[in-house]
Amino acid sequence: YRMIPDLKLYNPGASILVMVDQSTPDLEKKVRERGISFYMGKPVDRGLLKQILDHLCLFHQGYGDWKKVEY
Questions:
Q1: Which end of the chain lies in a sparser environment, N or C, as judged by fewer CB atoms within 10 Å?
Q2: What is the pLDDT tens value at each position of the chain, 71 positions in all?
Q3: Alpha-carbon distance 52 to 69, whole Å?
């Protein structure tokens, strides 16, 4: 989570998807406070991951609003 501000500095409009091996409420809170787009713990649901990535692609092409999508 420490590199999120650097990523945002390099590309302020980037959507950041964070996947963690061992999720804890404290880690999730720290990561979400950094302004990420999505947070996922393992095991990763491949179908859900594909939906999120497809939606982010459409969003960055100007065809959607990720904040209106529920997963």
A1: C
A2: 789 999 989 988 888 999 999 999 999 999 999 988 889 988 989 999 999 888 888 877 776 665 544 44
A3: 9
